[in-house]
Amino acid sequence: MAFGASSTSASGQSERSPREIAITLLARREYSRAELATRLERKDVPPDEIDACLSALAEEGLQSDTRFAESFIRSRILRGQGVRRIESELRQRGVDSATYAAALAEVVAQEGVDWFDLAREALSRRFSSPGDTPKERAKRERFLVSRGFDFDQIRYALSTL
């Protein structure tokens, strides 16, 4: 075997178990159950083995959608993103709405997040004024909408910039 080559069996399958693959991924960052399932599917792991592996990891506390959602929400808040965008991205990653809502409530309570101030900060990092023309103001509004802020938060951010 050449130096650096991965070890594979005669059939070409990796000799690593689904659990080893999942733990290697989880060692780098938190993953949702759906993300891990997708990664394991790409490694040609049979669906029944994926489900058993992920259930075992969840029971052992090594994988948690709640923990993933809380970590994800915190990282997105630091990036200056609003509730709508965070929710959309978590939905894309397979987190259900009940888990999302609980995680959001927990993070907001722990961190004391003020979505209005976050919208203002995100806007002030990108723009120095609310815009002199309707076209400039619309550009700023589109920026905040793309960041996931609602109308009231956008109006507040523009009025305090």
From TrEMBL:
Keywords of the record, alphabetical order, are:
Cytoplasm
Q: What is its main location?
A: cytoplasm
Q: Which residues form the RecX second three-helical domain?
A: 64-104
- The reply on keyword Hydrolase is no
Q: Which domain of life is it from?
A: Bacteria
Pinpoint the RecX first three-helical domain residues. Answer: 19-55
Q: For the RecX third three-helical domain, which residue ranges apply? A: 116-158
Q: List, alphabetically, the PANTHER family matched.
A: REGULATORY PROTEIN RECX FAMILY PROTEIN
- Which purpose does this protein serve, as stated in its record? Modulates RecA activity.
Q: What protein name does the entry list?
A: Regulatory protein RecX
The gene designation is: recX
